[in-house]
Design goal:
The chain has about 350 residues and is an alpha/beta fold. It contains 7 helices and 16 strands. The strands form 4 sheets. It has an 8-stranded parallel beta sheet with strand order 3-16-15-10-9-8-7-4. The longest helix has 15 residues. It is globular and about 50 Å long.
Length: about 350
């Protein structure tokens, strides 16, 4: 299947496939979301496609207070990907609520708000700030951002710390609003972390965040990024992301997963769904193609139709099922009934 090329604001007809998906009791019209950190809060992308046409908009991770982020340079290209060292720069929760979340609600988009903090108390306060806010569909708890100076803030690397954060967020989030924990691939056993956050109250999992990486300029012979290390994203990490989704689904088959990591095409998205994700987030490819989320959605719909699949829900985790044994067709079934020649 070749990639679909879309013009800005173009909305081609989708094939007759039920693309709806349910994440922890909340129904979404389709499984394609943006990824946190790659499209702010959706306003920039809305000039290229109708943001209400995709499953949801996952916002850039927001913190309690305004944050300037890490030193420049903050981004570097890598083979089949990129490194970013933004450092959770943002305006703070109050400005976010007034400007960004209110815009998403007014636009009719389904908002998934990503939150990040330096302590369990920070996360609890952020969750309280979101209570009762219109347009909020889900909360994504970013416990795994590698772009922070203090590695102790990467709560997702420790089961107890991850559980403490998620428990605080779940207690302070409105009932009926799912809480998804965003996990790091930079751990020995991601299923162990997944179990700890689900036991602590997470309704679902966002899998995965970027990997910690770095690049060195061989001309200056110094690190390329001002913060030295950064988060690696893009197609280079997709096999790792698919593996993590597979492991989490195998360990917790009833827990919904929002899969992400290097998704560039509809077939990439299909791979995540087969591994066990119920929805996907499209991120880094947006920098080169702002229409990527809606394009991936259309490519996915056509891929399902070409395979004779009527409902997206039928293929979630399908790759975990044993392959059916192939039985060769008899090329001449009528001939079997004929008497042997004498």
């Amino acid at each position: 299947m070749s990639e679909l090329t879309l013009r800005p604001r173009e909305t081609p007809q989708l094939p007759a496939v039920d693309l709806s998906t349910t994440l922890a009791g909340v129904r979404f019209p389709n499984p394609v979301f943006t990824a946190s950190g790659c499209a702010a809060a959706g306003q920039e992308l809305d000039q290229f496609f109708d943001v209400t046409a995709i499953g949801g908009v996952v916002t850039k991770s927001i913190m309690l207070a305004a944050r300037s982020g890490r030193a420049t340079p903050r981004m570097a290209e890598t083979p089949s990907g990129m490194l970013n060292s933004i450092g959770l720069q943002g305006p703070g929760i109050e400005a976010f609520l007034d400007k960004d979340l209110s815009w998403l609600a007014g636009r009719g988009a389904r908002a998934v708000v990503s939150i990040a903090g330096g302590s369990v108390e920070d996360y609890a306060k952020l969750a309280m700030k979101l209570r009762g806010r219109p347009g909020l569909s889900m909360v994504e708890v970013n416990i795994s951002c590698p772009n922070v100076e203090d590695r102790g803030q990467v709560f997702a690397c420790d089961p107890a710390a991850a559980a403490a954060v998620v428990s605080a967020v779940r207690r302070n989030t409105d009932k009926g609003v799912p809480v998804f924990a965003k996990l790091s691939p930079d751990v020995t056993d991601i299923a162990l972390i997944a179990r700890s956050v689900v036991d602590a109250g997470a309704d679902g999992l966002s899998v995965i965040n970027t990997l910690l990486g770095m690049a060195i300029d061989t001309t200056t012979m110094r690190p390329v990024l001002g913060g030295v290390t950064g988060g690696l994203s893009g197609p280079a990490i997709r096999p790792i992301a698919v593996r993590c989704v597979w492991q989490c689904h195998a360990a917790l088959p009833d827990v919904p997963i929002l899969g992400m990591g290097g998704i560039r095409t509809g077939l990439d998205a299909l791979e995540f769904l087969l591994a066990g994700a119920s929805a996907v987030s499209v991120g880094t490819t947006v920098f080169g193609d702002p229409t990527a989320p809606v394009r991936v959605l259309h490519e996915l719909a056509h891929a399902l139709a070409e395979r004779g699949i009527d409902r997206l829900s039928d293929i979630v985790g399908l790759a975990h099922q044993p392959a059916q044994k192939y039985v060769p067709q008899d090329p001449d079934p009528v001939g079997d009934d004929l008497p042997e020649e004498s």
